[in-house]
Amino acid sequence: MFRFHSFRTRLTVFFVGLLLAVQGAAFVIVDLANSHYARQQINAELEVDARVFGRLLAGRTAEMIQAARLLSGDFGFKTAYASGDQGTLLSALQNHRSRIKADTMVLLSLDEEVTASTLERRAEAAPMDFSAILEAADDSDEGEAALVMMLDGRPYLMVLVPLLAPLPVAWIGIGFVLDEQFVSSLKELTLAHVSLLRRVDKAWRIEASTLREPDTLAAALARVTRPRQSFVLEMAGQDNVTLMQPVAADGVLQAVLQRPLAAALAPYQRLRLALLLLTAVAFVASLFGASAIARSVNRPVQQLVAATRRVQKGDYGGAVAVDRVDEIGELATAFNHMTQGLAERDQVRDLLGKVVDPAVAEELLSKDLKLGGEEREVSVLFADIRGFTALSERQHPSDLLDLLNRYLSCMTEVIEGEGGVIDKYIGDAIMALFGAPLAHGDDAQRAVRAALAMGHELVRLNRELTAQGLPAIATGIGINTGLVVAGNMGSTHRLNYSVIGDGVNLASRIEGLTRFYGVPLIISESAAAAAPEFIYRELDRVRVKGKLEPVRIFEPLEAGILGDGELESYHEALAHYRAREWRQADDILAGLAAAAPASPLYALYRQRIANFLITPPADDWDATVVHSEK
Amino acid sequence: MDSEMWRIVLASLVVGFSTLTADAAELRGTVSNEQGAVENAVIYAIPLGSPPAASAGEAIIDQVDKLYTPFVSALRAGTTVKFPNKDNIKHHLYSVSKAKSFERPLYTGQKAAPVVFDKQGEVTLGCNIHDWMIAHILVLDTPYTKVTDKTGQAVISDMPAGTYAVRVWHPGMKGKKKAAKNPRTVTLAAAAVEIDFKIRLRPKSRWWREKPADADKNYADDERNSTGN
Predict the structure, then answer these.
(1) Segment B38-76, tens digit of pLDDT
(2) How far apart are CA A33 and CA A188, in angstroms?
(3) Cross-chain Cβ contact B96/A82 below 8 Å
(4) Closest to A167 (Cβ–Cβ): which among B94, B103, B207?
(5) How high is the ipTM of this complex?
(6) Quick one: pLDDT at residue A173?
(7) For A78, which of B96, B127, B133 is closest by C-beta distance?
(8) 8 Å CB contact between A602 and A589
(9) How far apart are CA A37 and CA B169, in angstroms?
(10) What is the pLDDT of residues A59-91, one digit of tens each?
(11) A168 with B134: Cβ contact below 8 A
């Protein structure tokens, strides 16, 4: 699937884009430099060509001057001149012309008239004008001159030297026509195309050229308004570097030297092709390379994403395979370590939740653990199996543990169901807190409700146990509500969240009194005050071990568990008892005991009254029973 | 000074001196150009009255040290000129000038036949084997001629009193034709008359040739020495 924002696409686009940008820039720079150097090279070559051209003309000129000087010193020619015979003179000129292989020879009088000429003149030809070269010769010390001039409509390299007899008596002119043969010989030397142009009426006329189609040059030049000395001229679709060199002083005649740009560019063209090929190969390679790198990064990343999702769902099972040593590999390893760490932490959390109450575990995990606590009102519940020691003697230890675990699980569920927190299991005993670490506002009610529910749950459990042939369990539960200190206690390395204080001890003591009073559940006066909506039977007024203040204790009752008026009668009897009215108290109690012979409470009080009838209590008796044993 | 002014000066001279002398007179000429005195210029006077009596004279143009001497000669038409070669090598004397065209091929000593210059005009002598050997001869129909010396002066003496057309000529002079057409008219009495000519010259290369530095290397001596041994 193509996604522009996918890592693979972006990586590929970046690499390929970078490659193309760099290669493109390199291509342009190399191309510019190449064409620049090619032009420079051609220009340099053309300048050499121009010098060769100049040297060739100069050499030819020197040769012709030498030839003219020799003729000038030729005595026979002098005498022929002196003879004044036109035919003889012309014949002598012809002879010399063919001897030195010149194209034309003329003899001019000192009056600048043409005395004799080998040139076959056409009828319509303009008169021959030697004034420029004569002036040049006259101005020079040697009395000699060389010039490119038009003669009979054709360009000539012309030299003029005086005929000395022994002083100048006439001018000898030797002409060399600058024609196709001349430019061809020049091309053999320079390898450049050579053309001779003449300016006629603001247009260039080709006088001679080595070009196959000289007209293209004339046409191309017509398009150039102001030719510089060197420029690129497009001729018949080909670029030619062109150098113009004046050959006559007035600039009417120009030599044009040309070399095709393509020839100089040819080696660079191969370089350009190689560069293009390289770019194409690098393009494909980078496409595949970027794709491969992206895939090699993508796949493990996808695996990691999948693994992360699994971890998110709580599945720590699948570690990511680490088969590489790069950053991705490091990431995978780190991920595996993290997953392992998470798994361990979750395990710890689970375990913690089992070892301590989940609420406490939450409290522990959410905060920094530190020692110390706070004073708060907590209802502390103690539950204990009665006769556990006897039970343990009858049961195999592992069976006993099973039994105990079943019991504890059931009870714990009930306690937690009411928002209670298991502080600890102490053997077969359960210590639970209501109001710490979290206060609910009705913690005492919750505690009492939990205690009552525990009774129901125990009945249910006992039915199960009995059905399985196991012994039934009897428990005693005590609840006290009071100020305790709640917090983390222990050492800095190992600590418990717990509560301490008199309230805790009192709860424990009260629980211990259940057997004495023969009831399953006793709560303290403060707990009963905090949870007033229940029905209570006041059991007694006790002074437990370690506490000076007497405490009234109550038994919460399920509605309907006592007979009609039984609770009121009992409380009436209790009031008589505390007022030392033994008879009245005993009468009521006797009635109650007859109605409920199983209740040990009525028997307990009747026994006490019997004792007081024999031995009345001291004057300061306050109806408090001291329970000194634990 | 232009010629008009000269004419006034000369006219006053004629008036001043014509009554004083009877016979011989002297013409003292000076030729100069912008650079100063001009040597080898010819001053010549042609009597306007009766022509001078014809006389067939003789003259010599030497060949010494591969040079013609004198460089410039002014001769009366009909003069016979000898060309003795005083060098120990041969020379090939020639002229292709219209006034006198002749040739004396390679010779030594006095072996060349004399030449009679019978026609007026300029003659340039050359040596066919030595390009720098040049001599100029002006052939005139008057005996009253003189070539200027290094100071540019030429004195023509023993001239009868009378009126003359006086001209100047130099082988390298510009405007020769014009000069020939416009002579100065001088009337001579017994006293000497001075006359100055200002001329312009062409470049020296047009009428004179430098003798090469190695031209005097004595090839003939070498040959003689070698045969003498």
Answers:
(1) 999 999 999 987 777 777 789 999 999 999 999 999 999
(2) 30
(3) yes
(4) B207
(5) 0.73
(6) 93
(7) B96
(8) yes
(9) 68
(10) 989 999 998 988 888 888 888 888 888 888 888
(11) no
Query: CA-based angle A29:A33:A37, to the nearest 5?
Result: 175
CA distances from B125 to B50, B85, B138, B170, B205 (A): 32, 14, 11, 15, 16
Q: What angle do helix axes A600-614 and A502-517 make, rounded to 10 degrees?
A: 90
Provide the whole-model pTM. Answer: 0.54
Q: pLDDT band at B15, cuts 50/70/90? A: very low
- Which of A53, A106, A116 lies closest to A86, judged by CA? A116
Q: Evaluate whether the domain defined by B1-49+150-198 bears CATH number 3.40.190.10.
A: no
Measured distance CA(A58)–CA(B62) in Å, rounded: 42
Interface of B with A in 93-122 (CB under 8 A): 94, 96, 101, 103
Ordered domains of chain A (ranges, CATH): 1-119+126-275 (3.30.450.20), 314-353 (no CATH), 369-537 (3.30.70.1230), 562-630 (no CATH)
Give per-residue pLDDT as tens, A328-382: 888 888 888 888 888 887 777 777 666 666 666 676 666 665 566 788 889 999 9
Q: CA B201, CA B172: separation in Å to the nearest integer? A: 5
The pair of structure tokens assigned to A215 is: 């007209």
In degrees and rounded to multiples of 5, residue A384 shows phi and psi of -140, 145
The domain locations on chain B are 1-49+150-198
Query: Which pair of structure tokens corresponds to residue A269?
Result: 């063209």
Measured CA angle at A295 (ends A294, A301), to 5 deg: 90
A322 in Cβ contact with A332 (< 8 Å)? yes
Among A72, A71, A75, A84, which residue's Cα sits nearest to residue A164? A72
Residue type, A601: L
Nearest Cα of chain A lies from the Cα of B59 at a distance, in angstroms, of 22
What percentage of chain B's residues is helix, strand, coil (to nearest 5)? Answer: 15, 45, 40
